[in-house]
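Q: What structure does this chain adopt?
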Amino acid sequence: MVHFMKNIKFSFYSLMLLGCVGSLVALNAQELHYLTADRMFDGERMLEGKAVIVQGNKIVSIVDKAAPIPQGAQVIAYRDATLLPGLIEGHAHLFLYPYNITDWDTQVLKETDALRTIRASVHARQTLLAGFTSVRDLGTEGAGYADVSLKKAILDKIIEGPRMLVAGRAIVSTGSYGPKGYDHDQKIMLGAEAADGNGLIQVVRDQIWQGADFIKIYADYRWGLMGEDQPTFTLDELKLIQEVTTSSGRVMVCHAKSKEAMRRAILAGAVTIEHGDFLDEETGKLMKEHGVIFMPTIAAVDKITQYRGWRKGIDADPENVIRKKKSFKAALASGVTIGMGGDVGVFPHGDNVMEMELMAEYGMPALEILKAATSVNAKAMNWQDKLGHIKAGYLADLVVVQGDPSKQIAQVRQVKMVMKDGVIYKKE
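A:
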């Protein structure tokens, strides 16, 4: 009987303890923060004399600093600093890492999916701590749908990382994509899934079923007679992909470098064009007319060229760098909406700001680059009603950087604080 009573007593106190823990969790979920810095970029404008009040995972209000600080709020204030919306990476490959360390073929063909996923989890944390609270991952390049699991591990708080949209395997046309140059008697695993014609319907639906948030298409690739970029899918094929994709509520995005591939992708309904190495003003205006967002991926070209021996700042610009500068200048002149996507993975994760620095080097004003990495990219991901701005009711993704990045974009590297979904992951 005594033993029985002891068990009842233990269970009672256990339930009380669990109840207290539950209350603490609920209280913590509604924790109040008061954040301020010398200036605040709200996704569109640079403002001064403002503070942001966060409760739980939402921005409650933006107030003047002169207003009273809410009772019980945790005050986070930085001097000579700027408060930004959480930055958004528009073109990432968390399952890749720089090719000067390990070449692409080796990563795709020899490294196990398990090893690549472990490495990707480290990349995810590096990305978050660099101030990028959201990422659009454009394909695992041979690791199947491991990105779907990585996304879930972050959502379930098993690991730290940015909010993710994932493409899974991505789609290529038969015979266009790599790895290449191997004996055809062997079955070589491709870096994306091949499909053609009416077979695209099943592949798109299967990728959606496997967990793809959007459908990524290689609208061209280096499969021309002389190894040049040429369109891979016909306009009708791209329209077919788009029809199936949009019927699920998802969007199609297209890797496209050549003018013809870009034209087909735009007319078929792509939401974003990735790379655009041969973009001219006419193509940029067509993008603008159809509301397509351009992700220039300047950093990928810059770094790959350096891996191949180009000594930037010493040697003359090679042809592909000259072409990239020309295409970006044409994009600016055409008025097309430009997002921020660097193809990170080609260069180190956590160094995402490199793309922003190159956008400035190529002629884009710093304030426009900040927009590209926040409000524009939020629109590209269809998150414009909850991310990319500092607004009441939006998710509490906030970053503080030293100095004023609207005058010198490199200041975005000086991250002092990172908050995602109301949780602080870094605070100096």
